[in-house]
Amino acid sequence: MSAVTGLVPPTAPAGPVAGSRDYYRKLAAGVAVVTACGPSGWSGSTVSTVTSVSLEPPVLLCCLARGSRTLEAVRHARRFAVHLLAAGQADLAERFSRPPGDRTRFAGLGREVLLVGGSPVISGVLAVAWCDLSSAAEVGDHVVLYGRVVSSRVGRGEPLVWHARAYRELGGLSAADAG
Questions:
Q1: Phi-psi label, residue 100: left if phi above 0, alpha if psi -120 to 50, beta otherwise
Q2: When comparing pLDDT for 56 and 4, which is higher?
Q3: What CATH code is carried by the domain that includes residue 134?
Q4: CA-to-CA distance for 135 and 61, rounded, in angstroms?
Q5: Burial 156-173 (b: 16+ CB within 10 A, else e)
Q6: Assigned domain for 2 exists
Q7: Which residues fall within 8 angstroms of residue 158, CB to CB, at 6 or more apart?
Q8: 50 with 84: CB under 8 angstroms?
Q9: For residue 50, what are the β-bridge partners?
Q10: In a domain, 48, yes or no
């Protein structure tokens, strides 16, 4: 390790998949649940890729695995909700990351879920944005969804974060930073 920066010095690169997997594990990302109402009912999936794209007009992007029920629901409804999870909500992230065939994600949730703006909305999350599907791009094993934000609600608190294959919480934010 370099004494100055603490970084591993460059070596011969790993193969594209193995090297990318290791690289992606170093990324830190907020954790969200995307929900939609499709032909087979409510659907939701945990995602760690949500990015603001534009403020005027407000557009965000999120990525869903090809073949997911949630992707099918979003394409059917042409709208979806993106729930940013708060610290302490790893249980929600785990529930909505179950295998695609699991239809029990909303059953026994212990939280109120209402159909708002055409999408199932889970109560008590850090923030939620309602989006109309603007476009979708198939990239590798995922589909990038671009959503025009039509409304949002934001609560107080710190986000749940995914890093190094584990859910984590930020520490040390002041009250002003967390709100």
A1: alpha
A2: 56
A3: 2.30.110.10
A4: 10
A5: ebbbbbbeeeebeeeeee
A6: no
A7: 86, 87, 126, 169, 170, 173, 178
A8: yes
A9: 62
A10: yes
Beta strand pairing status for 79-84 and 32-38? Answer: antiparallel
Cα within 13 Å of Cα(150), Cβ side: 14
pTM, full prediction: 0.85
- Which positions ≥6 away from 10 have C-beta within 8 Å? none
Q: Determine, yes or no, domain membership for 176.
A: no
pLDDT of res. 145: 97
Contact 119, 133 (CB under 8 A): no
Identity at 30, one-letter amino acid code: G
Would residue 120 count as lying in a domain?
yes
Q: Which pLDDT tens digit goes with each residue over 86-120? A: 999 999 999 999 876 666 788 888 899 999 999 99
CA neighbor of 107 nearest in space, from 43, 48, 38, 47? 43
Task: Round to whole Å and give the CA distance between 149 and 137.
Answer: 18
Which pLDDT does position 75 carry in this prediction? 97
Higher pLDDT, 109 or 134: 134
Domain around 63: 29-161
Q: Facing residues of 80 across strands?
A: 131
Could you give the number of structural domains in the chain?
Answer: 1
